Amino acid sequence: MKKAAAEFVGTFALVFFGCGAAVIAGMGTGPTAIDVLGIATAFGLSIVAMAYGIGPISGCHINPAVSLGVFVAGRMSAGDLIVYWIAQVLGALVAAVVLYLILSGKASGWNGGLGQNGWGAGHFGEYNLTSALIFEVVATFLFLVCILGVTQSGAPSQFAGLAIGFTLVAVHLVGINITGTSVNPARSLGPAIVGAGTNPGALGQVWLFIVAPLIGAAIAGVLFKVGSLLSADNS
Q1: Number of domains within the chain
Q2: Contact assessment for residue 61 and residue 88, using Cβ atoms and an 8 Å cutoff
Q3: Backbone angles phi, psi at 59, to 5 degrees
Q4: What does pTM read for this prediction?
Q5: What is the domain extent for residue 85?
Q6: What is the pLDDT of residues 88-107, one digit of tens each?
Q7: Mean pLDDT of the chain
């Protein structure tokens, strides 16, 4: 239960700060506004903070794709995987609800955006389905390569949070204009479900942001699983 609570809090923080930066500061004007770099940094710093805050408890996955990659790599049980997934999705949902309540209090109104991901006409750079799918698979794969690499035995674990956070910043810098950047099914599900009343299109597209990150993560997990087996055979 400590691990589940940690994953809930961590995923809540990621969605609250990351998506919050996108829809609150990102919608602002003048000195209060931030750009793509600011939004990307908010997501990255959230990971850094949570890595050191809850990492010793749960490993700070705060992402169903990360948990799947860790599972495929042979580093966690199926039971823990399910518990992590439930906690992560709940954390993202609650964070999206809190953002909804905050944004609903804006005197001039708000367009219903909660940081939902999407592709096609009217979304970000208007990239098509193929572009969105390729980006999410590749970006999640590279993100998991970093995570599984810096957390493996023998790696300097004290720097893991920084490496993972900076990698997530880089992923967002590339991906925000393509899909808004997911690489995290929970991060996509929370805003899509809570914002379905004002932005139903995001819920219709959310399948890609579940499937693509899981594919990318599974490939990375297999890579590290095979690598560990080869290392064991050689020894």
Answers
A1: 1
A2: yes
A3: 90, -5
A4: 0.92
A5: 2-234
A6: 999 999 999 999 999 999 88
A7: 92
Contacts of 49 (CB under 8 A, 6+ apart): 13
Among the listed residues 60, 86, 68, the one whose alpha carbon sits nearest the alpha carbon of residue 215: 68
Going by C-alpha positions, the residue among 203, 190, 228 that lies closest to residue 89 is 190
Which tens digits make up the pLDDT trace of 150-187? 998 877 778 899 999 999 999 999 999 999 999 999 99
The H-assigned helical ranges of the chain are 2-20, 36-58, 64-72, 78-103, 129-150, 160-175, 185-194, 200-205, 208-234
> Domain containing 88 — which CATH number?
1.20.1080.10
CB atoms within 10 A of CB 97: 14
Confidence of residue 132 (pLDDT cuts 50, 70, 90): very high
- Count of Cβ atoms closer than 10 Å to residue 216 Cβ: 25
- On whether the CB atoms of residues 36 and 176 are closer than 8 A, the answer is yes
Residue-wise pLDDT tens digits, 65-74: 999 999 999 9
Residue 131 has pLDDT above 70, yes or no: yes
Q: Note whether 189 and 206 are within 8 A (CB).
A: yes
